[in-house]
């Protein structure tokens, strides 16, 4: 893999001839690379939105998406026989809770498996706003949501 400004591409270099051949040209974040015994190369790429595992033949061609995860994938490894794939998926998940100032009347406000942050009450205490981040910590997109502070459902 060769790292270029803000993205990476997969290259092959022949160590005898020192010739280099570019296999991908996605202009997307590319992190992990792993060889498969059958001549395929696995790599993680953000070209589909989330960080997923893709496969391309060492001779070149079109990359095929292998996984469709909800978070960043890393630690890509292939078994010796090339039949099994091992990887880790990283997801940040938080839930919002509310309680009285003395710690009583605790209740959970959100139930989705999402990365949340920056909760805040509205000045009249009737609503709560918070940020929802991508479950892929390598992506920077987020949204601001508002919910009624007295119910469990998002508005």
Quick overview:
With 155 residues, this protein is mainly β. It has strands spanning 2-4, 7-9, 11-13, 20-22, 30-35, 40-48, 50-57, 64-65, 72-78, 85-90, 97-98, 107-108, 115-121, 127-133, 142-148.
Question: What key phrases describe this protein's structure?
Answer:
155 residues, mainly beta, 2 domains, 3-stranded antiparallel sheet, 0% helix
Based on Cα principal axes, name the global outline.
Answer: elongated
Strand tally is 15
User: If you compute it from the alpha carbons, what radius of gyration comes out, rounded to the nearest whole angstrom?
Assistant: 22 Å
Largest sheet: 4 strands, antiparallel
Mean of residue pLDDT? 82
Helix content: under 10%
Q: How much of the residues is beta strand, in percent?
A: over 45%
Please characterize this protein's 3D structure.
It is a single chain. This protein has strands spanning 2-4, 7-9, 11-13, 20-22, 30-35, 40-48, 50-57, 64-65, 72-78, 85-90, 97-98, 107-108, 115-121, 127-133, 142-148. The protein is an all-beta fold and 155 residues long. It has 2 domains: 2-90, no CATH class; 97-148, no CATH class. Strands 5-6-7-8 form a 4-stranded antiparallel β-sheet, with no helix packed on it. A 3-stranded antiparallel β-sheet has the order 13-14-15, with no helix packed on it. A two-stranded antiparallel ribbon has the order 1-2. The chain starts with a strand and ends in a 7-residue tail after the last strand. The model has no long low-confidence stretch (mean pLDDT 82).
């Amino acid at each position: 893999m060769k790292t270029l400004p803000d993205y990476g591409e997969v290259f092959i270099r022949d160590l005898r001839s020192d010739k280099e051949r570019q296999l991908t040209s996605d202009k997307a974040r590319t992190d992990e690379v792993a060889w498969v015994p059958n001549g395929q190369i696995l790599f993680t790429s953000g070209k589909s939105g989330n960080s997923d595992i893709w496969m391309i033949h060492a001779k070149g061609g079109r990359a095929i998406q292998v996984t469709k995860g909800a978070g960043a994938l890393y630690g890509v490894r292939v078994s010796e026989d090339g039949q099994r794939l091992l990887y880790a998926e990283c997801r940040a998940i938080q839930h919002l809770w509310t309680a009285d100032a003395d710690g009583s009347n605790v209740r959970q406000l959100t139930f989705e498996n999402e990365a949340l942050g920056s909760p805040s009450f509205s000045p009249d205490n009737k609503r709560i706003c918070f940020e929802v981040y991508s479950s892929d910590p390598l992506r920077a997109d987020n949204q601001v949501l508002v919910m009624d502070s007295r119910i469990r459902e998002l508005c």
